[in-house]
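Supplementary Methods, section 5.1.

A reviewer requested that the exact input to the structure prediction be made available. We therefore reproduce it here, unchanged from the version used in the analyses.
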Amino acid sequence: MPVWSLIVWLVIGGAAGFLAQRIMGGRSPGGLLGDLVLGILGAIVGGYGLSLLGISGNGGLVATFIVALVGALALLWLVRQFKKGA
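The structure derived from this sequence is encoded token-by-token as follows.
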């Protein structure tokens, strides 16, 4: 993977995490850094999960961002559910 692809992927994941936190509202579990990490992990989880459903994020930057956002929203929801139970 070229370095520029990795940088773009990290930026998209970070932006998705930031936006997911704003969509879900409430307090961020890890602050801005947590949002960025959540978005990057969400990009991975979202890409894998949607590929299992036969949906690909290979439609360009917008599709990749949407996949990352869906994954980040799902992870944020899961984190909040675990925090409620604890």
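The two ends are 39 Å apart (CA to CA). These observations are discussed further in the main text.
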